[in-house]
Design brief:
about 700 residues, alpha+beta, 5-stranded antiparallel beta sheet, 4-stranded antiparallel beta sheet
Length: about 700
């Protein structure tokens, strides 16, 4: 395991800084075999390894030897070609991606997102929604139908009913959609009738609705769960929903309708019913008595009687504990096996009656009176409640969750716009539009080739930082993105892939400049590179060699075997007797010079439990019973073993004097010493090969 790597990754994630120091302010501090080392590199490594201690000329000079030796090892690895190996390049590339990640996003945007998420954590929103499904890559005609439908529904909920012309226009759009037109050609009009009926009947739905939103939702929403919940999503908070949906909910006032929102699922409208302070994440246990939805009055009465009996047992001063009762009597067997414990949850997970009772408990250990839900009766015990906490306490968690969330693309998008602006980005969309003529249906079948665009030539499509990006390059990118796709608008597809290509090229442009723009990044990346080379070389010359070079290891052992000695040892037989009577019989037989086998067979004739014998060789200090009888022969007194409840008789068979260990008995120590020997020889070789010349003036400038 490469300890270096894990240290470096942790360091990068937690402590990167941006440094725009110019390269001209970075003089050479030393030469190693005429290879220059810049001051910034030496100083960065020195400060990291010396913490925040005050710098003195003496300590800096002392570190010169360590640093120059480190760099000599790196140069030696390069001379052996370790930096040219594919395995090294692949590993380093992976680490570079991790290092570069914090630099390839807009820091201010990321900070704002964390602040926004933290503020939203403090509040819960209760909302209902209506969904009109449409795929992200849908044809324009399908997208237009979906947007028109959601817009008509929203207006109707607000009291503006569609006019006859609106319905007729929507009817045309609906019949022209990919799915409906195909079904109508096959004489299947069911889907068409459902969708057009929902729009034609909006006025009727509105007149009959008590809650204009939740009563209209089951008639109009494409969400499969709407028939059960009328679109009600209960309470939710940050990260519970996709980001555009979440933002709409938090930005809409209580009692109001949101604007139309587009997510990867389609178009939504929301109505916000309530906002309240975040209740927290609670851990509870419960005892449950179920009854079915169609339970009879007798079933319900029996369930109530049972839960009351259990509650009485809990309240009784001599009653059973909550966990025991849950294991014995709870009808929720999965949680019952854990003493009733449920996974931690936030608002919106369980029935409102259950959650209100749980969050209403004031202290850990408190439990409720019986609470009824649609599923049965519950007694709920609070185990732990976690609130939002301080920003500093949740910052890392927020950062991690944002990185996995769609909102993470906002930081990348802001970076892309900044890089474009800083580097004179210009594009010629006419050159993009020429691809509309050469990208045909073969692209959807994954058989299109870049050569299909050869006739376009190689004209410039956009320029960034003085570099041209051409049609030939885009054609190759198009081919690299090919896959089997559903029928879609090819012009829109080309536009989307073109946008992706630009974004990737812009980020790659910025990525390539990181070493020049940020000294801290350059130093840290070099540290990774050098660290991997150093590990691989040291493994080759020292660690791995000491393990693999068995002949060299044996020669080293033979030369130094006087270092690997056993101290004085005792070969001991311990007779573990069932009781004093057995011990008395064993002592008698020992006195008669009977051997272990004879004694065991005789004593265990009536029961195999009477006697066991343990033979171990002990060093002094390993066993106090042996230490107190450190001489050959039978110990004078029996020893009571309280743990095993047996009587012990210690027999020291032989005292062994100091003696050399075999190589197998001390291989670990010999290998470690051999590694030290190999390293010392190797370091002597490196010091002889690589000569160091210091720039004393620059060295003195480190303060």
């Amino acid at each position: 395991m490469k300890v270096f790597k894990f240290f470096a990754v942790t360091l990068t994630i937690t402590a990167f800084t941006f440094n725009l120091a110019g390269q001209n302010d970075d003089p050479v501090i030393m030469w190693i075999n005429d290879r220059p080392i810049k001051k910034s590199e030496f100083e960065a490594v020195y400060r990291k390894n010396n913490g925040k201690d005050a710098i003195s000329n003496k300590s800096v000079k002392e570190y010169v030897d360590l640093f120059s030796l480190f760099k000599s090892k790196v140069f030696e690895a390069e001379s052996l070609g370790l930096d040219t190996l594919n395995s090294f390049k692949s590993e380093l590339a992976g680490y570079r991606r991790q290092l570069a990640s914090p630099y390839l996003t807009d820091k201010n945007t990321d900070e704002n997102l964390m602040t926004e998420a933290f503020e939203r954590m403090k509040q819960e929103v209760k909302a209902s929604h209506i969904l009109v499904k449409v795929d992200e890559t849908a044809l324009p005609k399908d997208t237009l139908e979906a947007w028109t439908r959601i817009n008509l529904i929203r207006n109707a909920i607000l009291g503006k009913m569609p006019a006859a012309g609106d319905v007729a226009n929507y009817d045309k759009l609906l019949k022209n959609t990919t799915e409906v037109s195909k079904l109508l050609k096959g004489k299947d009009s069911v889907l068409y009738k459902v969708k057009i009926g929902a729009i034609r009947n909006l006025s009727d739905y509105y007149q009959k609705a008590a809650d204009k939103f939740m009563d209209i939702a089951p008639k109009t929403s494409d969400d499969p769960s709407v028939l059960d919940n009328k679109g009600n999503l209960n309470y939710f908070t940050v990260f519970d929903m996709v980001y555009p949906f979440e933002s709409a909910a938090y930005k809409t006032n209580v009692g109001e309708l949101s604007p139309i929102v587009r997510t990867r699922f389609g178009y939504h409208i929301l109505k916000v019913y309530d906002k309240r302070p975040y209740r927290g994440e609670i851990s509870v246990s419960h005892i449950m008595v179920k009854f079915p939805k169609n339970a009879s009055e007798q079933d319900r009465a029996n369930a109530k009687t049972k839960i009351d009996e259990l509650y009485s047992k809990l309240k009784s001063a001599q009653g059973q504990g909550f966990e025991d009762l849950a294991r014995q009597f709870s009808d929720d067997r999965q949680s019952g096996e854990r003493g009733g414990m449920l996974p931690p949850f936030k608002s919106g997970k369980f029935a409102a009656e259950f959650e209100n009772a749980a969050f209403g408990l004031k202290n850990n250990g408190d439990y409720t009176e019986p609470v009824q839900t649609n599923y049965g009766w519950h007694i709920i015990k609070r185990n732990e409640l976690k609130g939002v906490g301080e920003f500093k306490d949740v910052k890392n968690e927020l950062k991690s969750r944002i990185a996995k969330d769609s909102r993470s693309q906002m930081g990348r998008a802001a970076l892309i716009e900044r890089v474009k602006k800083e580097n004179g980005f210009v594009e010629n969309l006419k050159m993009r539009d020429e691809f509309f003529k050469v990208v045909d249906s073969t692209y959807l079948k994954a058989s299109w080739k870049a050569e299909n665009a050869a006739k376009l030539g190689n004209k410039e499509m956009f320029k960034l930082g003085g570099k041209s990006y051409t049609q030939n390059e885009f054609a190759k990118f198009l081919e690299s993105q090919i896959s089997f796709r559903s029928p879609t608008d090819l012009a829109e597809l080309v536009k989307n892939i073109y946008k992706t290509w630009i974004n990737e090229r812009v980020v790659a442009f910025e990525d390539a400049l990181l070493e020049k723009k940020y000294v801290d990044f350059a130093n840290l990346y070099r540290e990774y590179r050098d660290g991997i080379l150093l590990f691989d070389l040291t493994d080759q010359k020292v660690w791995g060699k000491a393990v693999k070079d068995t002949a060299g290891l044996r020669v080293f052992y033979e030369k130094n075997k006087g270092k690997y000695l056993w101290d004085e040892r005792a070969e001991v037989s311990t007779y573990k007797c069932l009781n004093d009577k057995v011990a008395k019989d064993v002592r008698k037989m020992l006195k008669e010079k009977k051997d272990e086998k004879q004694i065991t067979e005789a004593i265990n004739k009536t029961s195999q439990l009477n006697l066991t014998v343990e033979n171990i060789t002990f060093l002094k200090g390993e066993n106090k019973n042996v230490d107190s009888n450190w001489k050959e022969g039978v110990a004078e007194k029996d020893i009571k073993d309280e743990k095993e409840n047996k009587v012990l008789i210690v027999v020291v068979n032989k005292i062994l004097p100091k003696s050399p260990k075999t190589i197998s008995e001390c291989r670990g120590n010999v290998t470690a010493d051999y590694q030290t020997y190999l390293e010392e020889e190797w370091l002597a070789y490196l010091r002889g090969k690589y000569k160091v010349k210091l720039n004393e003036e620059v060295l003195k400038s480190i303060k």
